[in-house]
C-alpha cells in the first residue's frame, strides 16, 4: 500500500443540507477518484463540537459556529485516497467563501465565512483525531475498486 494513501473527514454542514447540494458536493470527490469509506448523518452535540473546535474556544466565532453547526443534522464522510487530506482541503478552498476561488467548493457555493458549506480536516493529525471522534472502526469500510488503475498508478502509488 502506498505511504501516500490517507483518510480524511469531511462534514457537509447544515447549510449544505438545507440547500440540497450534498449530492453535488460528494459527487465532486467521487469524480476526482476519491473513495468514500464511511458516511452517516448526525446531529452534533455540544460535547462533540467542543472537542471538534477545541482550538477555537474563546474566539469570537466559537459560539456562533457551534450554533450554526446545530441548525440541522450534518452529513459526515470519511474519504480515502492518495494525499487526500491536502487534496480535499484544496478542493474545499479557503475558509471565507467570499475569498475562495471559483472552482473550489466554497468558492462556488459559499458567500460568507459563517456559512461555508463544508468542513475538511486540516492535516493528517487532525484527520486521525476527527475520524476517531465521529466514527467507530466498524463504521469504516476498506474495499478495492476494480477501476482504480484508471484513476492512478496503483503499483507506484502515483
Ligand atoms: P476551516 O479549517 O477552513 O474550516 O477554518 P477554521 O478551522 O479556521 O474555522 C473553523 C470554522 O469556524 C470555519 O469553517 C467557519 O465555519 C468558522 N469560522 C472561522 N472563522 C470565522 C469567523 O471569522 N467568523 C465566523 N462567523 N465564523 C468563522
From TrEMBL:
Catalytic positions are 119
Q: What reactions does this protein catalyze?
A: a ribonucleoside 5'-diphosphate + ATP = a ribonucleoside 5'-triphosphate + ADP; a 2'-deoxyribonucleoside 5'-diphosphate + ATP = a 2'-deoxyribonucleoside 5'-triphosphate + ADP
Task: Name the PROSITE patterns for this protein.
Answer: NDPK_LIKE
Q: Report the InterPro entries cross-referenced here.
A: NDK-like_dom (IPR034907), NDK-like_dom_sf (IPR036850), Nucleoside_diP_kinase (IPR001564)
Q: Which UniProt keywords apply?
A: ATP-binding, Cytoplasm, Kinase, Magnesium, Metal-binding, Nucleotide metabolism, Nucleotide-binding, Phosphoprotein, Transferase
Give EC number(s), comma-separated: 2.7.4.6
GO MF terms held by the record: ATP binding; metal ion binding; nucleoside diphosphate kinase activity
* BP-aspect Gene Ontology terms: CTP biosynthetic process; GTP biosynthetic process; UTP biosynthetic process
The entry marks the following residues as binding ATP, namely 13, 61, 89, 95, 106, 116
Cited Pfam families: NDK
Q: GO CC terms on record?
A: cytoplasm
Name the top EC class.
transferase
Which co-factor is required?
Mg(2+)
State the compartments where it is located: Cytoplasm
- List residues of the Nucleoside diphosphate kinase-like domain: 5-142
Q: Where is the signal peptide?
A: none
Q: Tell me the superkingdom of the source.
A: Bacteria
Name the family. Answer: Belongs to the NDK family.
* Subunit structure comment from the entry: Homotetramer.
Task of the protein: Major role in the synthesis of nucleoside triphosphates other than ATP. The ATP gamma phosphate is transferred to the NDP beta phosphate via a ping-pong mechanism, using a phosphorylated active-site intermediate.
Q: Which NCBIfam families match?
A: PRK00668.1
Q: What is the name listed in the Swiss-Prot or TrEMBL entry for this protein?
A: Nucleoside diphosphate kinase
Amino acid at each position: 500500500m502506498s505511504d501516500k494513501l490517507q483518510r480524511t473527514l469531511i462534514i457537509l454542514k447544515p447549510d449544505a443540507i438545507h440547500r440540497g447540494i450534498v449530492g453535488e458536493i460528494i459527487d465532486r470527490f467521487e469524480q476526482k477518484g476519491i473513495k468514500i469509506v464511511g458516511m452517516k448523518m448526525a446531529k452534533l452535540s455540544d460535547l462533540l463540537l467542543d472537542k471538534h473546535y477545541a482550538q477555537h474556544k474563546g474566539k469570537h466565532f466559537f459560539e456562533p459556529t457551534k450554533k450554526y453547526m446545530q441548525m440541522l443534522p450534518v452529513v459526515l464522510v470519511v474519504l480515502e485516497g492518495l494525499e487526500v487530506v491536502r487534496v480535499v482541503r484544496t478542493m474545499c478552498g479557503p475558509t471565507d467563501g467570499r475569498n475562495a476561488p471559483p472552482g473550489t467548493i466554497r468558492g462556488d457555493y459559499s458567500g460568507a465565512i459563517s456559512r461555508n458549506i463544508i468542513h475538511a480536516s486540516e492535516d493528517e493529525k487532525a484527520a486521525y483525531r476527527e475520524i476517531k471522534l465521529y466514527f467507530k472502526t466498524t463504521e469504516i469500510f476498506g474495499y478495492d475498486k476494480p477501476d482504480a488503475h484508471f484513476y492512478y498508478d496503483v503499483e507506484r502509488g502515483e
